[in-house]
Write a sequence for this structure.
């Protein structure tokens, strides 16, 4: 019997101006997954958490991703996947991506590392498509590659690993639900060319700022003139929370994924912790429960915790 | 009497996906300018070329830029500027920017380097605004800073010097006139959000590709789904010329500025020369006269050719 334990990290996608292309990995929170070879073909899912996610493989993100890779490999074995989720589903920090990526990385290990990371993203997209209704990879890419990534296209899949300096993220997850369909319905079909130019100049400047470790430039580029204005009403006290974080020294930030989480980037852990305090104070006024995380941007994605031959 | 001679290079703006923000400097063609201190205040322009540009300072790009910097410096002297243009006005490779930048760099030298490069771009914009009817800096920035630049915003002015590998540009200048107003009228007011996302993912990927010296990524990112489709009908045989260049090994390229010049980037001088041949063959079919240039992307912008105290 062979098995492998992996830790699948939370990720932030839609990084401000980089809507639908930029994302990064966190060190925590992360999901824990134990994947075990079994003789019968197919996939069995067991959830060791209390989120009540479906365990039928065809209705489970990890299950669908697992089926995709096993099928592509024409594997002569099946897998049992025990999942202990710590990343709350629907939090906007890549919960479904963590499940999908954890499954495919673990199974690829059991297959003797047959597939490239890029191929693994392709398999994980099968699970992600079920969860979000769209074939996107902006959480999958940082979850699998680690660090700060740019998805240039998903068809064909083209993922760019960006150079970036040490940066810390502070995340606040308000305990409210935002339906992806609702967040999507708010997106305009068309945008003014002027606004689009501002956005792509900021994306270019942000990538350059990350590569040059120019913190000032990173901060100035973290502006979103297109998506944030239409989506921020979904998050109570958004403007106040953001202003408090910038006052506390954050470089910038915005909505994580399609919310409800909000993230801020800082140049040091000390600042990220001050930002967390400012966030809490500003958000407490809403009376809504929330949790917060402080994490360095993780250079590594899925981590193998242990494996047994 | 003090005087200074400068060489002001041609530049390519609107670099494919980087419409209105990305530009780079060429080694040639360049304008030659001789700027001489005179006792009387104000600016005198003399053109040593045959383009018939106006010599009244208030109607001359170099004159307006010169007046702006002299005024800001409260200079107690005036200047006489002799201009020998080699960059044809209206060619789409930054002819007016070269005049404006050459004037301000030369005068700044006579002022003892009082102003920063960023401030000089601000003065040069006074001339550029007269020539193009808009305050933009996408040719000015590479002309002054050299290399590959990104203008994040013009208000406030925020210019990013990008890292980039050795690259060669091949430029073809068809002898046709495209009025800036005509090229501008073709721009859509609104663009589909989907297309804008493709564009900003490409801008981010291009900046990353330049920083990583990843030639494959640079080539894949040189796609423009927004402006090229609407403007390319202004340039005869555009699609055939572009296809021939890609066949000859170019990484990619597109319309330079608002045309009529077209440029292609290559990873070596040998390829850039092959691209030039392919360009000529494909364009000759139009029966329109043209000239071509092959130049490495210049790390230096305005060059001081000689100065005399």
């Amino acid at each position: 019997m062979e098995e492998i334990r992996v830790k699948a990290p939370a990720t932030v996608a839609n990084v401000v101006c980089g809507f639908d292309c930029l994302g990064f990995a966190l060190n925590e929170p992360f999901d824990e997954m134990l994947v075990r070879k079994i003789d019968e073909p197919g996939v069995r899912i067991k959830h060791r958490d209390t989120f009540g996610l479906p365990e039928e493989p065809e209705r489970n993100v990890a299950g669908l991703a697992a089926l995709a890779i096993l099928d592509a490999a024409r594997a002569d074995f099946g897998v049992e996947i025990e999942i202990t989720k710590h990343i709350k589903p629907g939090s906007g920090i890549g919960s479904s991506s963590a499940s999908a990526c954890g499954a495919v990385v673990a199974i690829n290990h059991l297959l003797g590392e047959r597939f490239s990371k890029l191929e693994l993203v392709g398999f994980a997209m099968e699970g992600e498509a079920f969860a979000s209704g769209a074939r996107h990879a902006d959480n999958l890419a940082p979850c699998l590659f680690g660090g700060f990534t740019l998805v240039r296209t998903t068809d064909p899949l083209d993922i760019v690993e960006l150079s970036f300096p040490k940066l810390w993220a502070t995340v606040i997850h308000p305990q409210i639900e935002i339906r992806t369909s609702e967040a999507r319905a708010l997106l305009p079909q068309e945008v003014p060319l002027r606004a689009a130019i501002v956005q792509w100049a900021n994306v270019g400047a942000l990538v350059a700022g990350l590569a040059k470790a120019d913190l000032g430039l990173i901060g100035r580029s973290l502006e979103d003139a297109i998506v944030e204005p239409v989506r921020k009403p979904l998050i109570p006290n958004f403007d106040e929370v953001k202003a408090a974080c910038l006052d506390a020294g954050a470089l910038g930030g915005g909505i994580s994924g399609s919310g409800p989480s909000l993230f801020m980037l800082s140049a040091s852990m000390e600042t990220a912790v001050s930002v967390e305090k400012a966030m809490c104070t500003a958000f407490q006024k809403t009376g809504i429960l929330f949790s917060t995380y402080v994490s360095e941007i993780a250079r590594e994605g899925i981590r193998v915790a242990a494996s047994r031959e």
User: Anything to note?
Assistant: The mean pLDDT of chain B is 95. Chain B has ten helices and twelve strands.
